[in-house]
Structure formats: C-alpha cells, structure tokens
Amino acid sequence: MSTGKMHADEADIDEALVRRLVRAQFPAWGGLDVARVDSAGTSNAMYRLGADMVVRLPRVAGAARDVEREQAWLPRLAPALPVAIPVPLGKGRPGEGYPYPWSVFRWLEGETPDPDRELAEPVLFGKDVAEFVTALRAVDPAGAPAAYRSDPLAERDDETRAVLAALGDVVDGPAATAMWETALDAPAWPGPPVWVHGDLQPGNVLVERGRLGAVIDFGCMGTGDPAVDLISAWYLMDAEAREAFRTALGPAADDAMWARGRGWALTIALMELSYYRRTNPVMARIARGVVARLTGRGAG
Length: 300
Known about the structure:
Layout: H1 15-25, E1 34-36, E2 44-49, E3 53-58, H2 61-64, H3 66-77, E4 88-92, E5 102-106, H4 122-137, H5 157-166, H6 173-185, E6 194-196, E7 205-208, E8 211-215, E9 222-224, H7 232-235, H8 239-249, H9 255-276, H10 281-295
Antiparallel strand pairs: 1-2, 2-3, 3-5, 4-5, 6-9, 7-8
C-alpha cells in the first residue's frame, strides 16, 4: 500500500470528504459506513461504502477524464465478458472542495494477486485471462474511444531509452535495450483497432480460489493494438501460467504480437519504476519484477 501523495497535483482525499460527498449527493446512502480500501493504485482512491459498494475518486485530472468513459462503456461491455467488471451505481459531481467527477460502483469480492507469490491454479488462471482478452477483442468497436495506450511503440522510443539510461543501476540495461529493439522491429498489427483493457496488472484484477474473478479498473480501455493486453503475461503470471495463456490465445499470439506485448510490458514497467520508485514502493516492486521476468531466464 502506498502512503502519502504520489503526484504533485493530487487532490486531498480522506474519509471525511467521502462522507460529505455521499451525504450531499446520494442522501439515501448517507448513513452507510465509509472505510478506506488499502490499495497500491495510483490513479484513484477507493473507499468502501456499506457492505456492497465502493466509492472511487480520481486523484488527478487525467484520471478524472476516465469517469465518463467508464460510466458510458462498462454497462455495454459487461454482457460480453466472462468475468465480473465494475457496475456503475452512481456518478458524483465535484463538490465539498473536491474538484473532479467520481463514481460509486458495486463492490466485487476477491484479492489482488501478488506477482511474487505462486499462483494456486497457474494453468487455469492463464486460460482465464486469455478468455477475457479474447472476449474483449471480439466486442464491436463501433463508436469506441481510442485506448489510453493506442499509440505505436515507436512513439515511446525516446522516452523509453531515456528512462532505461536513468535506471542503469536498477535494471539490466543491455538486455532490456535488446528486447525493446526487438519489439520495435516486430511487424505492426495488421488489422483494425480492437477493444483492449490496456492495463492488466495486479491492482486491476481480482482472484478467487486461484482463478480470475473480476477485472476492476478500466481507465485505460478503448481500441488499439491487442498486443497491449499481453502485458498481463509478465505482470500477472509465472512461466507456467504464461505458457497456458499464450496457448489459449492461439494463432493470434504469434511471434510479432508476442514481441510487441513484451515491448509494451517493458516500457510500462520502466515508466512506473522510474516514476514511483520513491513514492509507491509496491508499484515499484511490481515494475522491477516485470523487468526482471522479461530480461531473465524463462521470460517467454
């Protein structure tokens, strides 16, 4: 769990603010208990509301722009997906000194996975994530927004190399650079943009009895290269789960897509490690582990 603020422009959020917002805008829920949810998340603060709801408040303006997207699209995506996703129950307005729109969602049970802990059902978990990714890709993209990570990898080249140079004492620079260049050389996605989640990492999924139980944060969703959702292979999985995941994806996970997926995982992890190295130790640990899995033995 992170402590303190992670962003220079982060809003002030605490339990008292959440109580005031709920009482003012959703008086029917005003008497329910409010409790902070421990999370290493970086974009939103979450507070349990009663037994079966959660209040989600953007920490920064960039995350606030995701509220409208989630409110509009999550109900449309839910029927097509094999696991639970957040159900919007209310949309809050700025108020009580808080500057952004915010959401109330149905509470979803489960635990966020720890990449340093063995998966109870690695093969089944890998298949579960593949089923989710495949179902999401199949949703009609008509009218969908571009994903947060819809840009070609080449547009991230300068920043990725700069961060690699700055992290020379933390990561295996030569191995990471070689992997990054392989990703840049991989053939581009030949098809039209498809629905992607864009951020399948530990804080955004829930596990129950070793299986994928829910996906809980869709702030990066939209259309783009499906390779971006392959980051889950290194953010969520050990080698056994990763092999099952790729097998379950079938021919879609060809060498070109796998290389681009590794590139996406690498650039995202490097950016997170650089940005959160001193402000969010959990995120930094996860990102460092991703880079190690990508550049070490058995990376896949």
